[in-house]
Design goal:
Length: about 160
């Protein structure tokens, strides 16, 4: 079975997802700084839409990959005859995945909600409006959720492929 490109006994798509999880945070910080400090609202909008599409694509490819492997446990332990990870380690990895899933499932919901509402309520060309306060609350919530998705996803990868 194929491995990832980061040098661990992972899978190609899992490594792509890990890179996406790392890259998405600085891009998001940059995009927020464009709105907050540079007042480049049009560029902020474009980057947020691009990030949304990129994230959805990554999640879709990741889901296909996991299904093709018959579940994440078959990626962690590729050879059932000689498992790389002990049952105790597998339990800890599974717990980290459960925590990750809480954020990974709520983030797309918040992301789509934030985006759809912003597209509907901000004027075109994009500029601050009466909707700004609501957008900031929703958008910061989405941002925190995404950062936690990223952090817990990286923790899962660390426990499953680097530490184990
Ligand atoms: C998930 C998608 C998005 C996230 C996470 C996000 C994030 C943010 C954050 C955190 C701020 C507040 C910065 C501050 O504290 O001053 C902000 C401001 C802003 N965003 Fe977004 N944004 C998203 C999508 C969009 C979209 C699609 C539009 C346009 C249609 C947009 C337009 C704006 C505008 C105009 C502001 C400035 C509001 C003001 O200062 O009055 N955002 N965004």
């Amino acid at each position: 079975m194929e491995k990832g490109f980061l040098g661990y006994d992972s899978s190609l798509m899992l490594d792509v997802v890990v890179c996406a999880l790392v890259l998405v945070v600085p891009v998001l910080v940059y995009s927020i700084s464009l709105a907050k400090f540079s007042k480049k609202f049009g560029l902020h909008k474009a980057i947020q839409l691009g990030l949304g599409v990129a994230l959805l694509l990554t999640v879709a490819l990741f889901e296909i990959d996991i299904r093709m492997h018959g579940g994440w446990q078959n990626i962690v332990n590729k050879d059932p005859a000689s498992p790389r990870v002990s049952p105790e380690q597998l339990q800890l990895i599974s717990q980290s995945l459960t925590v990750h899933l809480v954020f990974a499932i709520s983030t797309p919901v918040l992301w789509i909600w934030t985006t759809v509402e912003a597209l509907r309520r901000f004027p075109d060309p994009t500029a601050p409006s009466a909707y700004s306060r609501r957008h900031k609350t929703l958008a910061w919530l989405t941002t925190v959720d995404l950062v936690l998705t990223s952090a817990t996803g990286l923790l899962f990868y660390y426990l499953a492929f680097i530490a184990a």
